[in-house]
C-alpha cells in the first residue's frame, strides 16, 4: 500500500541530552564540566539556557559536545530506518525549520536572531525515486517548503495532486553541479528583524527594538553588515565602515519587504478549530497567535 511518513525529530534542541551510550562520546569521560576550579561563566540568563546554569556547568565545550553527540545518535537511529529496502526504494527528504546558534556574540545555544547559523538549513533528497541525473548534485538556491511539497508529490508519481508551489528539480541544472548566487531573504518571528544575503555579504535590518536572549539590545532601524567570506561567524559588524554596501543591501531588503503582504496567513485563509488544536498539540501556536488580526509587521516602519 502507498505509504507516507512524517518523522519529526526534536532531539537536537536544547537541553541536549544524548543517551548514556553517547553521553561522553565527544567529551573526556574523566572530565568534570562543573569543576569548581574552572572560571565561573560570566554570561547569565536569558543569554544562556537556565539548565546549564542550574547544573553548575563552567566548561561550554561540554554542551557543544553534547549537541554533537545528540546528532550522532540521531544519525545512528535514522540509519536503521533508511537501510530498509522499502524506504530506499522510495523518496526521502531531510530538512528543518531552523539551525542552532551554539555561540554568537555572547548568546549561547539558541536560534533567536537571523544569523546564518539559524537560516542555513540544508535539504537532502535521496532514495530511488530521485532521478539519476540529479543524484550527487549540489544546488545553492534557496528552497521554499511549498516547492518541496510539490517536488515530493511529483517524484512520487502524484503530479496531478492539487498543491501549490513548483518542482525544485525543474529549476536545477544537472550540468552546473554548483551554487546559484541568488539573493536570500528572511524575516524573523514577530517581524523583529529581516535579512538579506547577497554573495559574501549578509545584512540584518532591525524593524523593532528587541533583545530576548541576545546580550546586546538591537535597536529599531539599525543595521548590521557582515562579510561571510572573511568572517563566517558574524563577529565583526562592518555597517559603519562599509556604509555604501550596507545602503545597497538595505534598499534591496526594504524593496522585498514592501512587496510582501502584511497580513497573517491566518487572515488570508480561515484556520479551522481542528487545525488550531493540532498546532497547539505540537506546541507551535495557540488560538491567539493563529487567528491574530493585526499585521505581522508594520510596512511603514522602515
Verbal overview:
There is one protein chain. With 302 residues, the protein is an alpha+beta fold. Helices cover 28% and strands 9% of the residues. It has ten helices and six strands, in the order αααβαβααββββαααα. Strands 3-4-5-6 form a four-stranded antiparallel sheet, with helices on one face. A two-stranded antiparallel sheet has the order 1-2. It starts with 49 loop residues before the first helix and ends in a 12-residue tail after the last helix.
Strand-helix topology:
Elements: H1 50-54, H2 61-82, H3 85-88, E1 92-94, H4 116-119, E2 124-126, H5 145-155, H6 168-171, E3 184-187, E4 193-198, E5 201-206, E6 223-227, H7 243-259, H8 265-268, H9 273-281, H10 287-290
Antiparallel strand pairs: 1-2, 3-4, 4-5, 5-6
The gist of it:
The protein is an alpha+beta fold and 302 residues long. It is built from 10 helices and 6 strands; from the N terminus they run αααβαβααββββαααα.
Amino acid at each position: 500500500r502507498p505509504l507516507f511518513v512524517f518523522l519529526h525529530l526534536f532531539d537536537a534542541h536544547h537541553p541536549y541530552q544524548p543517551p548514556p551510550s553517547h553521553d561522553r562520546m565527544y567529551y573526556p569521560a574523566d572530565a568534570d564540566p562543573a569543576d569548581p576550579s574552572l572560571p565561573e561563566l560570566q554570561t547569565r540568563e536569558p543569554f544562556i539556557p537556565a539548565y546549564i546554569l542550574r547544573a553548575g556547568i563552567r566548561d561550554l565545550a561540554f554542551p557543544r559536545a553534547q549537541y554533537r553527540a545528540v546528532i550522532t545518535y540521531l544519525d545512528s537511529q535514522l540509519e536503521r530506518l533508511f537501510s530498509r529496502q522499502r524506504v530506499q526504494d522510495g523518496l526521502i527528504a531531510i530538512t528543518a525549520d531552523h539551525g542552532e546558534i551554539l555561540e554568537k556574540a555572547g548568546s549561547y545555544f539558541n536560534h533567536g536572531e537571523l544569523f546564518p547559523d539559524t537560516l542555513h538549513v540544508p535539504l537532502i533528497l535521496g532514495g530511488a525515486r530521485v532521478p539519476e541525473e540529479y543524484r550527487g548534485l549540489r544546488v545553492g538556491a534557496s528552497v521554499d517548503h511549498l516547492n518541496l511539497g510539490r517536488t515530493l508529490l511529483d517524484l512520487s508519481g502524484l503530479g496531478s495532486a492539487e498543491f501549490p508551489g513548483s518542482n525544485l528539480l525543474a529549476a536545477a541544472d544537472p550540468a552546473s553541479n554548483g551554487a546559484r548566487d541568488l539573493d536570500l531573504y528572511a524575516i524573523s518571528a514577530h517581524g523583529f528583524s529581516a535579512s538579506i544575503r547577497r554573495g559574501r555579504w549578509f545584512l540584518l535590518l532591525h524593524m523593532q527594538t528587541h533583545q530576548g536572549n541576545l546580550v546586546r539590545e538591537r535597536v529599531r532601524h539599525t543595521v548590521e553588515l557582515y562579510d561571510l567570506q572573511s568572517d563566517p561567524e558574524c563577529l565583526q559588524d562592518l555597517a559603519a565602515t562599509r556604509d555604501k554596501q550596507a545602503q545597497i543591501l538595505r534598499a534591496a531588503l526594504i524593496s522585498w519587504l514592501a512587496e510582501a503582504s502584511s497580513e497573517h496567513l491566518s487572515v488570508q485563509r480561515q484556520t479551522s478549530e481542528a487545525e488550531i488544536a493540532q498546532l497547539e498539540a505540537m506546541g507551535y501556536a495557540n488560538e491567539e497567535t493563529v487567528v491574530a488580526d493585526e499585521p505581522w509587521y508594520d510596512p511603514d516602519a522602515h
